[in-house]
Amino acid sequence: FFEIIEVITQPDKKAGRKQLLAEPPIKTEALKYNITVRQPENISDYNLPQTDLIMVIAYAQILPEKILNIPKYGAVNLHGSLLPKYRGAACVQAAILNGDSESGISFIKMDAGIDTGPILINKKMEIKPTGTGGSLYAKLSELGGKFIVPTLSDYIKRKIAPYSQDQTQASYAKKLKKQDGQINWNLPAEKIERFIRAMSPWPGSYSLINTKILKILEAKNKLLKTNKYKIGEIFLYNGFPAIQCGKDALIIEILQLEGKKEISGKDFIKGYFKFIGSILK
Questions:
Q1: Closest alpha carbon to 120 in 78, 85, 92, 91
Q2: What are phi and psi of 134, to 5 degrees?
Q3: Taking a C-beta distance cutoff of 8 angstroms, is the pair 189, 249 a contact?
Q4: How many other β-carbons are positioned within 10 Å of the β-carbon of residue 161?
Q5: What's the CATH architecture for 178-275?
Q6: Percentage with pLDDT > 90 across the chain
Q7: Is 241 helix (H, G, I), strand (E, B) or coil?
């Protein structure tokens, strides 16, 4: 086992509709065990104490070399993809967006690059056909948690020989912004269905109906083989709203109009039948 000297996490931030100050979950957990918590605004300005090892998980700041060089065994990062595939912040969403059948986790020894360091281990897991960004993230987190202690232990005992990533197989998934969730209805329905799942819960997928935002929260993964409507047009299918895509159409199961609660597709038809025939932007 390891002695945790301190936990370093992001500063408390305002959250929710009331914008109340909320602390990161790891801070809450660490304080239960009387572990020192540090929350520097900029990690580059932080004076890290002498330590044997740093374990990094979704920290959201780049650690400078002056910090990486302090620990005796360096810094190990747990990343949510099978590196070198999908380096970067949106690695979980990227696997679903691209229709991958599997994802996984990678433990790497950190260097000055972004997710470019030598690999300690990879562990694979299946992506379910209905998996979302949120559900996959949760499963990868659970998988990673199981391997932190044994991986670090084997690494320190030199039972693991880190190996270089194959740079020719590398790809990058940039950090997502809220506007990245806007749906392009010109794409095939198959890709849009994956997009909706990948963007759930963050940043969420949406479109514009007239001047209002319409969040598309869930669509059936069975596509409609029809192309007779205008691209982006809402039409009725077996009591559900369906939307014409660049190829085929999607049946929408759960959605939310701006300023309203999320509702089922059938309830949307009952309350907003006037939108049948509208074109989403």
A1: 78
A2: -70, -45
A3: yes
A4: 8
A5: Roll (3.10)
A6: 96
A7: strand
- Specify the residue for token string 């379910």: 128
- pTM to 2 decimal places: 0.94
The percent of residues above 70 in pLDDT, for the chain, comes to: 100
Q: Are the C-beta atoms of 104 and 124 separated by less than 8 Å?
A: yes
Residue 35 in this model has a pLDDT that exceeds 90 = yes
Residue 171 is given by DSSP the state: -
Q: Are strands 212-219 and 206-209 parallel, antiparallel or unpaired?
A: antiparallel
Helix, strand, coil shares of the chain as percentages rounded to 5?
25, 30, 45
> d(Cα 179, Cα 146) in Å, to the nearest integer?
35
Rounded Cα gap, residues 199 and 196, in angstroms: 5
Every domain of the chain and the residues it spans: 40-169, 178-275
Alpha-helix residue ranges (DSSP H) falling in 175-226: 189-198
CA nearest to 234, candidates 263, 268, 262, 260 = 268
CATH class of 40-169: alpha beta
